[in-house]
Please model this.
Amino acid sequence: MSVTLKPKILFVGYGHLAKSLASNSFLKNFKIDSINSKSRIYSLNRKKIIKKLNHPYKYVFLLVRPNLFNLRGTEFNKYIDSKTIIVSCMAGVTINRIQQIINSKNIIRIMPNVMAKQNASHTYVYSKNKKLINSTFHKILKSFGTYHISSKEDEINIATALYGSGPAFIAFLVNAFLAASKIVSPNSRVNERDVIHLFKNVISINDSSLKLEKFVQSIASKKGTTQAGVHFLKSQNLKKIMYTTLYRAYKRAKEISIEK
Model:
């Protein structure tokens, strides 16, 4: 009876995103090592420090900051061979730029988010060589959640703003709503969990922009309390604020792509 060996993966960098990618299904199907900035090698499957790298690796994930890659990226060549597939999770760093620093054309760019560990990321994927996105790589992507194969590399910059940074923007908005609810009712205890469930419940029954718009209209009766609040939100041009937030994140990803 033959035993199927788990494909081996190396994480170069072991920060917050790297830890978030280590979902149970990812660890179940792959053998994953990581190496951090202090050259400490750690087996994610065995949850222990190991003495040496487990060459050769089928995939090497670049999980370092773009500025560090620009400074020390050539050092990463020692982790790859001619068959290794590079998977870049770096915001803004183009495939052409990676090729200038690392001696490989086997490069895939992905933009997941920190909810991958809960299988709740929506990941954008781009590669010049579509053959690299094979059944094995689809299995990796499924371990993070849902995913989209992009036809243009710039879509990764858009995904960086929307899906990579987006969870932080949403969390900031929810937290602002929580803080405001406590200020407006100082003499009563606002249960944070109830307010967070309010957000979850509204989204769960309104899964499109049209449904959300109708939902607002159904509550905002003429000269009522909801209409008073909605009118104020409109007067503050909340849509423009959100657009500017996303655009600035997108613009920063574009700026990173030309930084050396």
User: Anything to note?
Assistant: The domain at 8-151 is CATH 3.40.50.720 (Rossmann fold). The mean pLDDT is 93. The radius of gyration is 22 Å.
